[in-house]
Queue: 3 jobs
Job 1
Amino acid sequence: MSDICEVCGLPKEICVCEDIAREQQKISIAVDKRRYGKMMTIVDGIDPHELDINGLITQLKSKCACGGTIKEGKIELQGDHRTKVKETLEKMGFTVELI
């Protein structure tokens, strides 16, 4: 037997809860200048209770070939990767806004 999703009641193979959660979130991408002139790409607006934020940061770090972390619910990537992050998140089904 396949597992059943607790939210929608469908089998996990055809569950659409995560896709709906992605479409409903408004994500903003900004660049911040840190100490010694280092640039950081900040991804904000992701609800960690609805999505796997650790899996998402792993995908973004490998796509951008950079380091990063999660602080206060925001994803911080080392360097200026606005366009790569925007393209990657839009392919995943998120609504993205550049700041």
Note: The helical segments are 17-24, 53-64, 82-92.
Job 2
Amino acid sequence: MSFFTDIFRLMGTPELWHASLQYAALLLLPALGGVISERSGVVNIAMEGMMLTGAFFAVAVDLAVHNVWIAVLGAMLAGGLMALIHAVVSIRYRADQIVSGVAINIFAAGITVFLVNRIYGLADVGQVPSSDALPNWHIPILGDIPFLGRVFFQQNIMVYVALLLLVAIQIFLFRTRLGLRIRSVGEHPQAADTAGINVYTLRYGAVVTSGLLSGLAGAFLSIGIANTFVPGMTDGRGYIALAAMIFGKWTPIGAFVATLIFGFGQAIYDANSSIHVSQYLLSMTPYILTLVVLTAVVRRSSPPAADGIPYVPGAE
């Protein structure tokens, strides 16, 4: 009973919901990228590696130039470059998209450890602290509202960026001509090609966009939340973002709802000192939620018809 008492007590504190929204925003960025990529017909499970690469380069660029915004740009470019590799392998050479994604995740884990050792002379588990941090934004007046002010109006600036991107991408995909074209190449690329739509260009653009957003998430993690880079620090968050995208049925709003659930699980784990239960058990919370969600939803979810299928012009 002590466990449930602690949980109910925590749910009455603004800190728990503040952390939940923060972690939800962190997962939302790559999940939105995954929605765009898979709506175009390219499976992207490499978001984990793109996030990790972005997290490293955010810290590395920040230490080099001491400008947090240039560091964010560097992280996005690093994530975009990893996505471009995935796009070339998957689209140009029509390789298995799952295998390509797994290879990029493994490569990212290895290259970041190598660079930490090579540039900073640290062991595999060495930490590289950043010199700057993404600012927290205390919105005047609104931030002083009891409870709600702490939850919604005293967040890191990246939380607001993620929420703005959520609205923008929802409108873009379902209310614009270009969004319709992206969805068409993910549903029936042959028909789209016949209508004069360049399938390859849209798929390249969608995959690279997913990398930019994943790199942005990596920057948020390393110079917005942790203020340091640690090898492997993404800790499966890219895969959780993928699960959120599936839970949300390949829509931005649906993915956001899922990230709120997973963010809550991560916030519960962070509050382990306030809960009388093993911290190892709590550490499994986000992943248990992922399994439960996938088990309950995946059979009722239908991805875009051409998702994961390489496009071959003229083939039926």
Note: The first strand starts at residue 128 and ends at 129.
Job 3
Amino acid sequence: MTKTSVSGAGIGLRQPHYARVLEEQPPLGFVEVHSENFFHDGGASLRTLERARELYPVSLHGVGMALASADLQAGPHLERLAQLVERIEPAFVSEHLCWGSVGGVHFNDLLPFPCTEEALALVAGRIGVVQDRLRRPLLIENLSAYVRFRDDDMSEAEFLAELVGMTGCGLLLDLNNLYVNACNFGEDARQALARLPMAAVGEIHLAGHEVTEHGLIDTHGSVVCDAVWSLLRDVRERGASAPVLIEWDTDLPALEVLLDQAARADRIAPALCGEGARHVASA
């Protein structure tokens, strides 16, 4: 039977772990894949995703729509995504708050933009088109960025809160991205959390980063640090009960490492949300 409801933490499903996950069926709440990797009409990888969908709820995480691009031509991309959504019936569909194309050239990157009223209107309109086509709310992810803009009218957290109010979209709250930005720009991650509507958070990402002499780099290539685990506890205390995804894309470890990180997330989540919750001092 195909599983639909999400209960518990998940992991990003990457090709080196396909065989073991499908054969051993570890106890995961869900798995997540990058949508664009499955836009073709057939083949082994799509069959693998369909098999995974029989075992787990699936989250489709987009990296290529570039919703804030000024001259976006997203029609073909959106149609491919809509076909995949209809085929897989995912638990969640998400995209990044970024731009990535101009003049018909796609940069294959998640680029930041000024958080202005003009950009807000543009992105809100795009989200409306996507949600109408998919017939479901889209989760929008906060971005790790390495620049701030003088033209900003608001913070990213305020921008996201406005998007939720204008479009009815949800949020994919990436706590590692939030922490990386706070450290790099001398900001307070918890103040950013306070500006976000926790009720709109549909999924939470946790990942690792690299510490360099110039700042933190969002690499998705290591275990989640203690400070980010602490932010997860804070989010739970603020009432967000969304499922957690362990995101790991570079220097991929053994499957057991990912499962251990997911289990740690589960030890935090049930204790700090829901009826009869108990406070947990550490995970």
Note: Residues 10-272 form a domain with the TIM Barrel fold (CATH 3.20.20.150).
